[in-house]
Amino acid sequence: MYYMVHAAQMIQALSAASPDLLDAVLLTGFSANSTAQPPFLAGGDFQPAAIVAPARFADQGIPDAYLVNQSPYNTQFMTYFFPYFPEDALQRTYQTGQPVTQGVLFTQGVIMQNATDFTGAVHVVTGAQDFPFCDGNCYAVPSGGPYTSIPAYTKTFYPSASNFSVYIPANTGHNINGHYSAPEVFQDMLQFVESVFSPSQSL
Predict the structure, then answer these.
(1) For residue range 113-156, what is the model confidence (pLDDT) as tens digits?
(2) Are 201 and 104 spatial neighbours (Cβ–Cβ below 8 Å)?
(3) What is the CATH number of the domain that holds 20?
(4) How far apart, in whole angstroms, are the C-alpha atoms of residue 149 and residue 32?
């Protein structure tokens, strides 16, 4: 899985910069923690796309600054929690992934910011073993702290939210779409969306 900027980070930044544009915020594979980013990037073993996958990228004129994971195992390390996913899902993720630039990889965390003026509902859905945003354990929080999970600390970005909730599926890494838990995760997200846009909410 490659990306120009992590989608949840873009939505989080948008909710801070232009809060009136959004009715609610659903952040997947996200937390306020950016300390896990360096080992996440190292484990990805990013290499020039045209060298790793010449059949896909060599003839497109893509410069060496555009990178992909060196192997499916690096994609697994970053985004999947073994063995709770179909092998086909991992292979599909690797084979269809798109390049990312070096600049984006090392600066994407800086766009996250406090969304103090956002007043809509906020829901965070992050796998219990998410590596990029939880370093592999989303419950590794200080004893006696205000929150029981790392994703729950996202609430500090949203002091004015009308409602804040967190769902942490077990045995799930960063790519929640590719794990066996996906059907339950999708159901949770749909319930949140329905709660935001139900007729009773529009009265």
Answers:
(1) 999 999 999 999 999 999 989 999 999 999 999 999 999 999 99
(2) no
(3) 3.40.50
(4) 11
5 pLDDT above the threshold of 60: no
Residue 157: helix, strand or coil by DSSP? helix
In a domain, 2, yes or no: no
Token pair of 113, please? 């910011």
Q: What is the pLDDT of residues 58-96, one digit of tens each?
A: 888 888 889 999 999 999 998 999 999 999 999 999 999
Does some domain include residue 14?
Answer: yes
Judge whether 1 lies within some domain: no
pTM listed for this prediction: 0.89
What's the first-to-final CA gap in the chain, in angstroms? 40
Structure tokens given for 40: 């996440």
The domain of 118 spans: 7-202
List, in order, residues 6 or more apart from 67 with CB less than 8 Å away: 2, 46, 47, 48, 49, 99, 100, 101, 102, 105
Per the domain annotation, does 95 fall within a domain? yes
Contacts of 19 (CB under 8 A, 6+ apart): 115, 117, 118, 119, 120
Determine which helix (DSSP H) or strand (DSSP E) holds 188, and give its type and residue range.
helix 182-197
If one counts the domains in the chain, the total is: 1
